[in-house]
Description:
Elements: H1 14-22, H2 30-35, H3 37-40, H4 42-71, H5 78-98
Helix pairs in contact: 1-4, 1-5, 4-5
Amino acid sequence: xxxxxxxxxxxxxxxxxxxxxxxxxxxxxxxxxxxxxxxxxxxxxxxxxxxxxxxxxxxxxxxxxxxxxxxxxxxxxxxxxxxxxxxxxxxxxxxxxxxxxxxxxxxxxxxxxxxx
Length: 116
């Protein structure tokens, strides 16, 4: 009987990991924000802040890349490079969240704090 899965025996904080990971998946950062899980866990709050900052930087950077690429035609590849850089940061954030590490993302992780 000990080989069977018992949902009540799930380790405490497993919801924290899920909410922390969701924080990095684009607009899905709204889920831990709406549920209020960031109020219960400092880890979720940290990753939610990182995810929101990354989302804002990604949107602003995409707009800037579009404008620059339209003005300077030969920089059409700029948006692809930007998207790749954002993807690397998303993966790094998800890995940190899955390992319950509170390490800021390179470059963008220390820009500003959204939720205090």
